[in-house]
Amino acid sequence: MNLTVHIEKIGRQTKSVIEGYGRLSIMLFHAFASIRKFHLYFGQIIEQFIYIGRRSLPIVIITSIFIGLALGVQIGTQMSPLTPAWLEGGLILRSILLEMGPIIIGLILSGRVAAGIAAELGTMKVTEQIDALRSFAIDPVEYLVMPRLVAAMFAVPALLVFADFFGILAGFVSSYFTINLNWAGFVKGMHHSFYVSDVFASLIKAFIFGIIIVIFGSYFGFNSRRGARGVGKATTLAVVWASVDVLMLDYVISAIMFFI
Question: Model's pTM, two decimal places?
């Protein structure tokens, strides 16, 4: 009997998740369809670009620096004495370029941007501001989601460039003090391991993560329940699901790029 109850509970939860992804996909399609009117919301796009990009830059740089420092120590101390020291430059480059940079951006912005969007739109939902937009024949997805989506598609890859640069630079500093690797050797290692396709893979990840972060924040904000508790729950769900999907898509994109 207990087994039947648990199976039914799992089935209901699975059905709820699938239905949620379906509604989220419809919102995403609607937002992309609204991009044709982006010129009408240019001011809002710039405002959201500043919010997502410029205001996230300090925390992105600080986190990237410490990730680079940690990588320099960990890789340097794990290398065999018989392994050429300059190889660490390539290992740090590829680690940050392919994985750590995009993951840092995705998780940080899931906590900052997705939460902020969910809280803002959730407050608008519970105070009936979204209903007011509909009463004035204004499409809420076009007015609230599309500008954020367009801004994120440009802001997140731009943040990734800064994250990669400062992470790699910090990795060199850490390597210098850990295994006494000079700049010429570090550059040699990077040159040996660098592939142009890695840059495209990294930017593609950032582009997709930006879309994921905005759409999850918007979806849970639009579907928040009434009251402060409802907005708080929507914010938590936005952060959790955006972070989970960032990690899942990181694997999917990496696997696709490997087989291509």
Answer: 0.89
Burial label for 44, CB within 10 Å (0-12, 13-18, 19+), is: middle
**Residue pLDDT, tens place only, 190-211:** 888 888 888 888 999 999 999 9
DSSP string, 73-94: HHHHHHS-TTS-TTHHHHHHHH
Half-sphere exposure of 119 (CA within 13 A, CB side): 10
Q: Which domain holds residue 61?
A: 2-259
Distance CA 222, CA 125 (A): 6
**Cα 238 to Cα 153: distance, rounded to the nearest angstrom:** 18
Distance between CA atoms of residues 28 and 12, nearest Å = 24
Q: Are 218 and 117 in contact (CB under 8 A)?
A: yes
The model's pLDDT over 134-173, given as tens digits with 9 standing for 90+, comes to 888 888 999 999 999 999 999 999 999 999 999 999 999 9
| Chain Cα centroid distance, residue 56 | 12
Dihedral sign, Cα of residue 139, residue 143, residue 145, residue 150: positive
130 vs 138: CA distance, rounded Å: 9
Alpha-carbon distance of 100 to 97, in angstroms, equals 7
Place of tokens 């709820």: 16
Contacts of 93 (CB under 8 A, 6+ apart): 168, 171, 189, 190, 193, 194
d(CA 252, CA 208): 12
- Number of domains the chain is built from: 1
